[in-house]
Amino acid sequence: MKILAQSMNEVKSTEAAKLIEHWEKGAKFDLLKTRPGYFRAWDHQLMHEMYAVEALKASELKNQWDIYKPSPPVPGPNEDLEAIAPTKEENACTFA
User: 68-70 and 46-47 as β-strands: parallel, antiparallel, unpaired?
Assistant: First the structure.
């Protein structure tokens, strides 16, 4: 909803075609991660950092919520977000 509201404010419209055009042009969105995300134009995939987690050993737990250790963001800060997604050639998704 936040992305949709931001987009409607930026394009001054609620028309789906205008919103999609805005996203396809590379609009960036704050996803509460270390860098913004965007929708890939050719398949509308939301591109953003990902995090892997590693379960902590019982002896490492500090409380009932401290159950895992997150990885640094993937891809790394100097890598393109596309690095973890299928390429256009690898992806079966198409739009008419």
Answer: unpaired
